[in-house]
Write a structure and sequence with these properties.
The protein is an alpha/beta fold and about 300 residues long. It contains 7 helices and 5 strands. It has a single domain, classed as 3-Layer(aba) Sandwich (Rossmann fold), CATH 3.40.50.1110. A 5-stranded parallel beta sheet has the order 2-1-3-4-5, sandwiched between helices. The longest helix has about 35 residues. The termini are far apart.
Length: about 300
């Protein structure tokens, strides 16, 4: 009888294993497959019309300042140190050296020509103000200035519109753009045109000079701020000149190397020339003024 029970239990155990094995193996297989399956990835929506995100004015590197401390144009003054020789940057060039605008015969003037001039700009213009030789000119400039933020600013408690409406200028020099070269260029040019229109409205008799933005050294270039982008911006600025009351001038040939970069020996931050070279800059400005009559020669 015990043998019969033992055989019966054995048979039942075998049957149980046969029935349960497929279920067990299926569960093991399913669990293993779940572990190997990659986690689901969330869909990412891309706005193809937006393109690459452009840094805002607050986020964008403000490169009108020395890299030795901070490349932000909001905290550092133009470079004053000198490591180059006492030789001038180069002989001041005339406008024929620049291919970006129509041939125009500029002429030479004495520094007194600038006695009724107003210079508007960022830290490069601050350099002209502090280290240049045109001391009788008026200046409205500060670190970090751009065409799109100029109207919200005040220098020594005064706004640009107040200066334009309360003084009479014979000529006005503008150099802005490096602090917004990473922004949308149409937005920048809209701001530039608005500034130009305001100046012409307040100072209808003034001769306006649009100065090209100074290049940076090759090693100072970034994906946002580089000489190719500056050339594009300068070209668009040059198109605002009518060569009757508004003229475009480009000092870059004075300071560039053979490849269109600011020469390394003229700067310690890759952005500003040394203090002594603002004298060369002012000398070049004296050689490139609009003659009386303002007649373009094509």
């Amino acid at each position: 009888m015990n043998k019969i029970k033992q055989c019966t239990y054995t048979i039942l155990l075998i049957l149980t294993c046969l029935v349960a094995s497929p279920i067990i193996f299926k569960q093991i297989w399913t669990t293993s497959a779940e572990k190997e399956k990659p986690a689901p990835v969330k869909d990412i929506e891309i706005d193809i019309h937006k393109g690459a995100e452009i840094p805002s004015q607050n986020e964008m590197p403000q490169t009108s300042e020395p890299a030795s401390e901070n490349t932000s144009d909001s905290s550092v003054q133009p470079a004053t140190g000198e490591k180059a020789t006492d030789e001038p940057a180069t002989e001041p060039n005339t406008q024929e050296a620049d291919p970006h605008y129509i041939t125009f015969q500029y002429t030479e003037a004495e520094p007194s020509y600038f006695d009724d001039a107003l210079f508007i700009g960022d830290s490069r213009t601050v350099g002209i103000y502090e280290y240049g030789t045109l001391k009788n000119a008026d200046y409205y400039c500060d670190i970090g200035y751009s065409a799109s933020t100029l109207y919200g600013s005040h220098i020594k408690g005064g706004a640009l519109t107040s200066k334009l409406s309360s003084n009479q200028y014979g000529k006005i020099y503008i150099m802005l753009g490096i602090n917004e070269v990473g922004n949308d260029i149409e937005y920048t040019m809209t701001a530039y045109r608005a500034l130009l229109d305001e100046i012409r409205s307040c100072q209808p008799d003034a001769v306006i000079y649009l100065q090209a933005n100074l290049h940076v050294t090759q090693l100072s270039q970034t994906s946002v701020i580089n000489n190719a982008a500056l050339d594009v911006l300068n070209e668009r600025i040059s198109q605002l000149a009518d060569y009757e009351k508004v003229f475009y001038i480009n000092v870059n040939p004075v300071f560039d190397d053979g490849d269109g970069n600011l020469r390394n020996e003229l700067t310690n931050d890759g952005v500003h020339v040394f203090a002594k070279y603002y004298t060369d800059w002012c000398g070049w400005l004296c050689l490139n003024v609009v003659p009386e009559g303002n007649e373009a020669q094509n």
